[in-house]
Design goal:
This protein is mainly α. It is built from four helices and no strands. α1 packs across α3 and α2 crosses α3. It is elongated.
Amino acid sequence: MTTSWSHAVRGQWREAAMANSGGLLLAVLAAGAAAGALTVAAWGRRWKLIMNQGVGVGVALAVFGVTIVDWLIRLCVTYWA
């Protein structure tokens, strides 16, 4: 995921996805969270976005699922190549 994040912060989206799709998704989510944190810090009030435990678990499972599928595809391609 480190390589994926490295590409993502440079705007190299294709290379980030090729390195690790889960890492790219996590980098995009982190950028959104950072933007939200800056907005809260600047205005001093919360976003209208409701973030509860169910949403957090759903996001975590989505990142986990994308990462596992990415790894499985890489393993299959390596094994049958």
